[in-house]
Amino acid sequence: MRFLVAESEPPDARERRRANVGRSSGETFRDLLLQLAPGAEVERATPADADDEIPDRETLAGYDAVFLTGSPLHVYEDTPEARREIEFMRRVFASGTPSFGSCAGLQVAAAAAGGVVRSMGKRREAGITRRITPTDQGRAHPLLAGRAPAWDAITIHNDEVERLPDGALLLARNNETEVQAAEIRMGPGVFWGVQYHPELPLSDMAAALRRDADDLVEAGLVRDRAEVELQSALLDALAREPDRRDLRWRLGVDDELANRDRRSLELRNFIEHLVKPTMAGRGR
């Protein structure tokens, strides 16, 4: 298998994340994909970067899958970075190569295909997003095959998809964010995406909470930085010992979040149910 991971982060955000957790978003994706598909060739691209050439349709068609990472980029702002990301995604759709995105990756795909993305205003989802449930279409969709009737997931975002493109399938929602999972089609391209982060280790989310502590206090999700540190410490501990019942109880989570294989289920389903059949159809 030959995969391309597109880092949605602008260069400064990418370096801040490396300083914060030791890896960029694309490097985190790469590390998990190498575990899910041993022997795969995983390359990275940085389409938001002004000095990085956006791959053309023919080049993108040479990959078996394209993955879009999360990012602090606001795709509804008319910036060079946002325009480059949207152009990249339109080329991915035109190539016919299956694609998957988390968080901002879902938002980029929605905007590229004609949907609308907006700021959440004073609302936030950070750390653990609760009680995600499939829609009627989601219950039968292979992206969510094997998911519990309701599940929690790792997340951090303050933008959301306001309106999916015409013809898109809404697959999951919760009380905070209407579009938690979706399928989007444009031309020959098929995209599966989620608003949460199935690729992230729990320790990466703990670091993200510490990084954004002041914003979380301002948003009213916690009273002070000490509460952020407590939540982050619990996530770090669960990352080290995912089977500890006391940590699961204190965080209010089960296998759907604590177990890495369950947490990354959507990525496994994407590879098994979309990438491999598409490869077979292309004679690969």
TrEMBL record:
Gene Ontology terms, MF aspect: transferase activity
Keywords of this entry: Glutamine amidotransferase, Transferase
GO CC aspect terms: cytosol
Region of interest: Disordered: 1-25
Keyword GTP-binding: no
One Pfam family hit: GATase
Gene3D superfamilies: 3.40.50.880
Record domain Glutamine amidotransferase: where: 47-205
Keyword presence, Transferase: yes
Name recorded for this polypeptide: Glutamine amidotransferase
Native organism: Sphingomonas lenta
Lineage: Bacteria, Pseudomonadati, Pseudomonadota, Alphaproteobacteria, Sphingomonadales
